[in-house]
Specification:
The structure is a single chain. This protein has three domains: 105 residues, no CATH class; 116 residues, Immunoglobulin-like; 99 residues, Winged helix-like DNA-binding domain superfamily/Winged helix DNA-binding domain (Arc Repressor Mutant, subunit A, Orthogonal Bundle). 36% of the residues lie in helices and 24% in strands. Strands 2, 3, 6, 7, 10, 11 and 12 form a seven-stranded antiparallel β-sheet that branches. The chain has a five-stranded antiparallel β-sheet with strand order 4-5-1-8-9, with no helix packed on it. Strands 13-14 form a two-stranded antiparallel sheet.
Length: 347
Amino acid sequence: MILGASERSSRLQRIVRVCLTNRPVSRRRSMRATRFARLLASLAVLGCGDDPSGPEPSGAVTATVQFVYAAPTATDPEVAANFPQCVQGVSVTHIHPSWRGYPAIPLAAVGAERWEISFTDVPVGAEQRIRISDPNTCALNPTGASTEGVSANGTLLTRIVDTPGSGIEPGLAFLAAADGTVTPYHVRSATFGVGRASARSSLRVPLDLPLARLPRVAYIACNLRLQSRQLRRGAHMATKRYLGEFEQMVLLAALHLKEDAYGVRLTEEISERSGREVSRGALYVTFDRLERKGLIGSRYGDASDTRGGRRRRYVSVTAEGVEALRESREALLGLWRGLEAELDGHA
């Protein structure tokens, strides 16, 4: 069934309005959401199809992209012995492309240290995401997801993002041009102000989303939903960087170890100083999360035969990471203050 322009506009308004909030809204806020939804809908009608998640509109531009994953093509026997469940779950090294709905597609082994695959249907001009799953990465990540050594048409992908998998797993984002040029994806946004002047915040809509792709409202609505959550939290919350207990342990251990801060040494340092046993999988997942927050940086050492050709990952705490630790310490000290007698058993 093909919907008329007015029906498509009404449907898009309802979708965007629902995604702006999960609860009943005030009349004033409802009017704001409706006006903004009408703006998106009027633009989207120019290139709408019946189903936002359906096929690309006719004439949509795609590019050919070759992905190369620089990693050993043989499964490390030690990894297979120590992480059998993960290795069996991953099975063969494969890729999950977002524009096809994240199916598992095997990569082709080329020599001993290279995997390849090419796609001719990569949409142009909008964010795309991939996730590489490698059984050898089970030693570093409990799901086998890998974000290192992946390039697209010769461009190293560095933008780490969340992708759906066994829960949320790390993947990589990129933007393809019609000529096949690939760049790591970073959102450029237009700002629509809402709220009172004293606590003004904004909703963001990507500027590099072409009109032909506006019918895929799910992408826009998801971005709006995340931004609306920030609005509800309040502008003062955005300036704070709250750290979990384990994140603090990792950052503090890395500061103690300085240039020698890598996986095994960090687990030993945390265990010795806190008495807490740490799995390498949990540690590397935390690495990825802290790096996305800008609280640590990482580098890779040379490949080693004793590690099956894999490189050791070293981390260092950034200035933002040190500041986040200071903020967390001040918050905890504020809560501890005045409770010394009670907690020491001398109430």
